[in-house]
Design brief:
- The chain is of the alpha+beta class and 377 residues long.
- The protein has eleven helices and ten strands.
- It folds into three domains: 111 residues, Butyryl-Coa Dehydrogenase, subunit A, domain 1; 110 residues, Butyryl-CoA Dehydrogenase, subunit A, domain 2 (Beta Barrel), CATH 2.40.110; 147 residues, Butyryl-CoA Dehydrogenase, subunit A, domain 3.
- A four-stranded mixed β-sheet has the order 1-4-5-8. Strands 2-3-7-6 form a four-stranded antiparallel β-sheet, covered by helices on one side. A two-stranded antiparallel ribbon has the order 9-10.
- The chain is globular, with a radius of gyration of 21 Å.
- Bound molecules: acetoacetyl-coenzyme A.
């Protein structure tokens, strides 16, 4: 149950869409490693690509709690589609909404909300993952424009993106100081995808590596204050992490529902598995973890909506929901036994999809760094 009627209706609307339009395609999306264009069109029609973009910029004008609910429900049907929405909204769109000039908002938000441009986030590099501040991509001031050179990787939505939020040093320093953020249109000369990753899970979601070779960025496309780009990245990830927590909980819920169905149907030792206390205890623990994750997700989203600090709570939501999703999907396979290990049953996909939630937008170890830093300051 959600905290009020309005959010219940949003969950029902998202769940209806997820069950009728997304779930039937999930297996195909996983196997063909692509979200069909027709589904992306339906995401746009339902306002899912502009969830928290204000209506004046062509968005749905909803809040972050609604965003988390929608991402959770869509991810329950298909984790690849869930992260497509999540990365586009929280990583590709939110930084413009929060740090952009009025001109940048007017130019890009309507395109992002309408799906004319898909958004992505380019922070990581081959030698700068968890230590994001050590990135080396460089933006040189050429007077009337910036010239961008470097290599970026682990870019969710990289194949579809028309717009990337790119982080680069504008002064050469070994740490996070001197990083600035830029809005980069991906059809600019010198911007090229050099690798599309082949992954264990979320196989329908594209993950790319990109080379930036003398890409000319207009001066007006610098995003946020000069050399405060690391703050832009960290603030963006604070919200993005709630989206990944919601994705993780959607995957966990899908595995949980299947496990419940299976243990009631499957008869061994003359009775359904559900009659065994060892099984009941697993079901109880799964249910508790999912509800606890949901509370952390909704609470951190609420704090964000009312402009209160939420870095700690967002990191806790991501840490707990992702580790729970891994535990729940592992145990869903265990409850389904040999059947669960085969590709005929959906739980193996949930298990494969859950793993990345402990890694991207900050590993579980990074979440613990953020939580401890907040608690000990
Ligand atoms: N909001 C705003 N500013 C913040 C902040 C926050 N939540 N957290 C830190 N900052 C600021 C600090 O105030 C400080 O700035 P000033 O010096 O100007 O005050 C600056 O950032 C540095 O802070 P720290 O000393 O805490 O930074 P650090 O270098 O020790 O790094 C870290 C800390 C938590 C490990 C950080 O590097 C981090 O989050 N790393 C993980 C990066 C990550 O999540 N990468 C995923 C990329 S996206 C992805 O996965 C792909 C995708 O497409 C989905």
């Amino acid at each position: 149950m959600d905290i009020n009627k309005e959010y219940e209706e949003i969950r029902e609307m998202a769940a209806r869409f997820a069950d009728s339009e997304v779930a039937p395609l999930a297996d195909k999306i996983d196997k063909e490693k692509k979200i069909p264009q027709e589904l992306i069109v339906k995401l746009v029609e339902n306002g899912f690509l502009g969830i928290f973009v204000p209506e004046e910029y062509g968005g749905s004008g909803m809040d972050y709690v609604s965003y988390a609910i929608i991402v959770e429900e869509i991810s329950r049907a298909c984790a690849s589609t869930g992260v497509f929405i999540s990365a586009h909204c929280s990583l590709g769109t939110w930084p413009i909404l929060n740090f952009g000039t009025e001109e940048q908002k007017k130019k890009y938000l309507p395109k992002l909300a309408s799906g004319e441009m898909i958004g992505c986030f380019s922070l990581s590099e081959p030698n700068a993952g968890s230590d994001a501040g050590s990135l080396t991509t460089f933006a040189e001031d050429k007077g009337d424009h910036w010239e961008l050179n470097g290599v970026k990787n682990w870019i969710t939505n990289g194949s579809e993106a028309g717009l990337a939020i790119v982080f680069a040093k504008t002064t050469k320093t070994p740490n996070y100081k001197g990083i600035s953020a830029f809005i980069v249109e991906t059809d600019l000369p010198g911007y090229s995808i050099i690798k599309v990753e082949d992954k264990l899970g979320i196989r329908g979601s594209s993950t790319t590596q990109v080379a930036l070779d003398k890409v000319k960025i207009p001066k007006e496309n610098q995003l946020g204050p000069h050399e405060k780009g690391f703050r832009v990245a960290m603030a963006t990830l604070d919200g993005g992490r709630i989206g990944i927590a919601a994705q993780a909980n959607g995957i966990a819920e899908a595995a949980f529902r299947y496990a419940k169905y299976y243990v009631k149907e499957r008869v061994q030792f003359g009775k359904p598995l559900a009659d065994l206390q060892a099984v009941q205890f697993k079901i109880a623990d799964m249910s508790t973890r999912i509800n606890a994750s949901r509370h952390l997700i909704l609470y951190s989203s609420y704090l964000k909506d009312v402009d209160r600090p939420y870095s700690l709570e967002g990191a806790q939501a991501k840490l707990f929901a992702s580790e729970s999703a891994m535990w729940i999907t592992t145990n869903a396979i265990q409850l389904c036994g040999g059947n669960g290990f085969t590709t005929e049953y959906p739980v193996e996909r949930y298990f494969r999809d859950a793993k990345i939630t402990e890694i991207y937008e900050g590993t579980s170890e990074v979440q613990r760094i953020v939580i401890a830093a907040n608690e000990l300051k």
